[in-house]
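Example for tutorial group B:
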């Protein structure tokens, strides 16, 4: 057999390998591109680009709306809503009117005593040590009971007591029993032992109960001073 179709295959492969070897050696010894070539490529890429007037870039401050006005508006709306709801409750009778805001509220102190005691007394900051209930009594019996109650309270060193006299809503004019008790507190035999008195808070009887703060010793009455600033003598000398 003389026909050999692949006899030249070995030569072709050998020739191809030599060609690849020569190309690899040429690439290895080829010089790198110069800076001029890089500049040319850059200018070609930047063709048509307009440069900025200034190279300095100013930062843009992002402005956000302040939340304070919105929070304040919501707070004011909430306060208005609560005030309206409170007013509706008072008008409808669901919540009683504060005792201090009614004409039935009473308070008072001895001369020289701070009015702050009345506020503390009405707010219930003092512990009530004893109650006197005058319901069903007439005027004479009520005054006798007050005398006995205050005498006993002072002997037992009680500091804060309460007198239940009612609101006198059935009276035609002013509350009779309540008026008698208040006059007795201000002008009675134990008036100098009274530091302060005030209507009770609503949760303890309100205007129908009077709290009384007592002193261990009689409150000294301040002497009047003359026009010159000195104290008046026993015979009224200046």
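The residue assignment follows.
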């Amino acid at each position: 057999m003389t026909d050999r179709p692949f006899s030249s295959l070995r030569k072709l492969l050998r020739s191809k390998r030599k060609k690849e070897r020569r190309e690899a050696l040429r690439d290895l010894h080829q010089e790198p591109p110069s800076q001029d070539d890089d500049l040319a490529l850059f200018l070609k890429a930047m063709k048509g680009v307009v440069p900025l007037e200034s190279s300095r870039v100013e930062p843009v401050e992002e402005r956000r709306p302040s939340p304070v006005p919105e929070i304040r508006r919501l707070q004011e709306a909430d306060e208005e809503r609560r005030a309206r709801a409170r007013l509706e409750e008072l008008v409808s009778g669901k919540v009683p009117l504060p005792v201090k805001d009614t004409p039935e509220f009473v308070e008072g102190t001895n001369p020289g005593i701070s009015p702050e005691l009345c506020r503390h007394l009405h707010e219930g900051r003092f512990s009530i040590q004893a109650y006197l209930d005058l319901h069903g009594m007439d005027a004479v019996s009520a005054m006798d009971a007050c005398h006995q109650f205050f005498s006993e309270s002072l002997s037992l060193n009680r500091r804060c007591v309460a007198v239940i006299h009612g609101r006198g809503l059935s009276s035609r004019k002013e509350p009779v029993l309540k008026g008698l008790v208040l006059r007795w507190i201000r002008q009675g035999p134990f008036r100098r032992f009274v530091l302060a008195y005030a209507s009770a808070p609503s949760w303890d009887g309100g205007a129908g109960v009077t709290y009384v703060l007592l002193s261990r010793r009689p409150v000294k009455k301040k002497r009047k001073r003359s026009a010159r600033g000195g104290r008046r003598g026993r015979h009224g000398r200046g």
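The first strand starts at residue 107 and ends at 109. Compare this with the pattern of hydrophobic and polar residues in the output above.
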